Amino acid sequence: MSTYKIAVMEGDGIGPEIVAETVKVLQAAQRKVDGLKLELAELPVGLAAYERYGSTLPSSTVEALKTCDGGILGPVTTHVYNVHDESMVNPSGKLRTELDLYANLRPARNFPGVNTRFENVDMLIVRENTEGMYADRNLHEGNGEFMPDPDTVVSLRVVSRRKSERLARVGFELARARRKSVAVVHKKNVLRRGCGLFVDCCSMVAEEYPDVAVSDFHVDAFAMFMVQHPEKFDVIVTTNMFGDILSDLAAGLVGGLGLAPGLNLGDRFLLAQATHGSAPDIAGKNIANPIAEILSVQMMLEMLGIRNKDGRALEAAGRIKTAVEKTLEQGVRTPDLGGTATTSEFGDVVASHV
Ligand code: ATP
């Protein structure tokens, strides 16, 4: 028996709609794979949790997560959270530091049946997830943004050797199982110390992987190369904010945010979370594309399978991947991809293919 305890956190905006379809697909995979047991535990986060428990990330949620193998997190509408209210933390950012989910894996590839301007795209952005420019998570205590006077803001960026090295190792390890090529993306011509340290750490780790080709790029030029020749890139290792921006660009190359999954990876916990935000403009209409969230869970199962040498988790991941592709191939699509399927219809078809 392969048993995994998985937390389910709906989040805000379109979160409840896409997470419901993801759970539907996950349960279909569980039914199909003999000996795979997924214990799903719903945990409150986001605006609904604030209404009910007075916090967007109740401490009971964090404690419960520490007993889980993985979790599914819907997007959160942090831009409406009151910055002066300490109970309105960004659950996504806080969980990344609290559970030390240090690498954010964001793949972008072409899908069958989705027409795009680019072909043969298959890249994986490996983004640092716990420091960098993100003020809410880059200090042990306090916030990395402060106002010396009402017209001035100072923002701190943190880059550390330990976190850069362990991130690079994830990137090189994953590249070994792919096309054996890593692009390190930075801005060390200007951010000489921060990006300089990051690049040095990546170069040091690269020596342990002589079979993996390594190159490095300034982030601004790299944005151009990604659009000119996206098919050339395999694994991209970069700092937090550059990775956040480049992963949306990558999603745009292959059909949009609805197709952009993500996995937050720690040594003891995995958190599946689509790259996109909570899309308040389409929330509650049953038209959001659930693919990104579904494929985030697929990535989680695959990683559980690899780490635990568990063929059942790998089989479930494989079934979900193929089911999404079959659904797109047969022309079932949500409106963001030019189709007419609702979120729940799309989830039904994927689940039936699983
Ligand atoms: P955040 O900063 O929280 O990531 P964002 O500013 O990147 O948020 P999103 O919420 O991701 O914004 O939405 C950007 C656009 O993409 C919106 O028009 C939204 O409707 C669309 N979008 C995002 N996710 C999906 C989805 N799953 N299905 C369809 N459209 C989506």
Describe the structure.
- Helix content is 40%, strand content 18%.
- By secondary structure, the protein is α/β, with parallel strands linked by helices.
- Helix 6 (194-206) links the parallel strand 8 (181-186) and strand 9 (213-218).
- The two termini are 20 Å apart.
- The model has no long low-confidence stretch (mean pLDDT 95).
- Residues 14, 257-258, 276-279, 281-282, 288-289, 292, 336 line the site of adenosine-5'-triphosphate (ATP).
- The site of adenosine-5'-triphosphate has 13 residues, from loops.
List the helices and strands and how they pair.
Blueprint: E1 2-9, H1 15-32, E2 36-42, H2 46-53, H3 59-65, E3 70-73, H4 91-98, E4 103-109, E5 122-128, E6 145-149, E7 152-155, H5 161-176, E8 181-186, H6 194-206, E9 213-218, H7 219-228, E10 235-238, H8 240-253, E11 263-265, E12 270-272, H9 291-307, H10 311-329, H11 343-353
Parallel strand pairs: 1-2, 1-3, 3-12, 5-10, 8-9, 8-10
Antiparallel strand pairs: 4-5, 4-11, 6-7, 11-12
Helix pairs in contact: 1-9, 1-10, 1-11, 5-6, 7-8, 9-10, 10-11
The structure holds adenosine-5'-triphosphate.
Residues 14, 257-258, 276-279, 281-282, 288-289, 292, 336 line the site of adenosine-5'-triphosphate (ATP).
